[in-house]
Amino acid sequence: MNGYFHRVHATTPTRLWINNPSGSDLEKAIQAGAINCTTNPSYCSKLLQSEPAYIKGVIKETVHRMPSASVDQVAIEVIKHVSKRILDRFFPLYQASNGKEGYVTIQDDPRKDYDTDHTVKAHLEFSKLGKNFMAKIPVIAGGCEAIEELVARDIPVCATEIFSLSQAIHICERYNRAAKKTGNHPPFYVTHITGIFDQYFAEIVKNEHISIDPNVLSQAGSIIARKEYRVLKERNLPGTLLGGGARNLSHFTNFVGGDFHITINWSTAEELIQLDPPVEKRIDAPTPREVVEELSAKLPGFRRAYEEDGMQLEEFADFGPVMLFKTMFLNGYIRLLDEILDTFNH
């Protein structure tokens, strides 16, 4: 095999993950070299677009099996069912790699992200689906406490919704505290959502008519991600940086060459395979000082994300890009609840 991702894997430590795949996309992604999979609270709503017969069948069967259950209870069972399909498909890779690869992340009801006890219990229940389960939890107040508790219980964790250096450092320190206390060091990924970061600030620039070079603006998310990567390496902090929320090919190619994993939709992966660009090591590409200065001067939110002490724990959940991403998840999750309610009514 000599496809783009196979060449990336052969010549660099950078690795491909697949995000929210349909059944057919899952097979193609594994063939292309995907080592792990991410899902999020919008996954079932995505399946209503990509595999409507499959997901509606799962919902119908679950409602029939649980006629007295609440809509919320059915939703969790549906999520378990569709996630189990992916867990089972990746399990041979988990076995072959001795537990280094083959993980599948599952994220709970986004309306309850702030509830530590609920989040811990939900992910302990998800963990029963397979050894290659990985908890996916946002780095906000409530979520951080849940991550620390699950690390202490030796549960693999994907810390997500990270848009700032302060979030990345905070959750790594939480991991270290739990690991020091218990001696457990489960797999740990620190997820910077590059594309959503860029999307959020592009909308601000457009709506507020801020004068800024588009080429400068397009570097914002990647600049934060590269700084997080450098800090984690320089300070020997735990975890592998995972890029997410890609909105264009650069949100993969900008990080090639680093010990950096990136999760992308199959449509983006397929575009890269067809384009078949050379494998260029770009993780250490320098950022001109004037670019950081312009972004910091014109976008206060960028400055908060770039500075190490830009935010405190209680501010994480209200950061603009976090709110944008969470809204997307809420909309997707509510779409699943609507479909379940409609199935109950018919």
What features would you describe in this structure?
It contains 16 helices and eight strands. The chain has helices spanning 4-11, 23-32, 43-50, 52-65, 71-96, 116-126, 143-152, 165-182, 194-207, 214-217, 220-234, 250-253, 266-275, 289-298, 300-306, 320-345, and strands spanning 15-19, 36-38, 104-106, 133-138, 157-162, 188-193, 240-244, 260-264. α4 crosses α16. The longest helix is centred in the N-terminal third of the chain and has 26 residues, at 71-96. The protein is globular and about 60 Å long. By secondary structure, the chain is an alpha/beta fold.
Quick take:
The protein is an alpha/beta fold.
CATH topology assignment? TIM Barrel
Shape: globular
Question: How much is the average pLDDT?
Answer: 97
Q: What's the helix-strand series?
A: HEHEHHHEHEHEHEHHHEHEHHHH
- Helix % is 55-70%
Characteristics:
346 residues, alpha/beta, TIM Barrel, eight-stranded parallel beta sheet, 11% strand
Please outline the helices and strands.
Elements: H1 4-11, E1 15-19, H2 23-32, E2 36-38, H3 43-50, H4 52-65, H5 71-96, E3 104-106, H6 116-126, E4 133-138, H7 143-152, E5 157-162, H8 165-182, E6 188-193, H9 194-207, H10 214-217, H11 220-234, E7 240-244, H12 250-253, E8 260-264, H13 266-275, H14 289-298, H15 300-306, H16 320-345
Parallel strand pairs: 1-2, 1-8, 3-4, 4-5, 5-6, 6-7, 7-8
Helix pairs in contact: 3-4, 3-16, 4-5, 4-16, 5-16, 6-7, 7-8, 8-11, 9-11, 9-16, 14-15
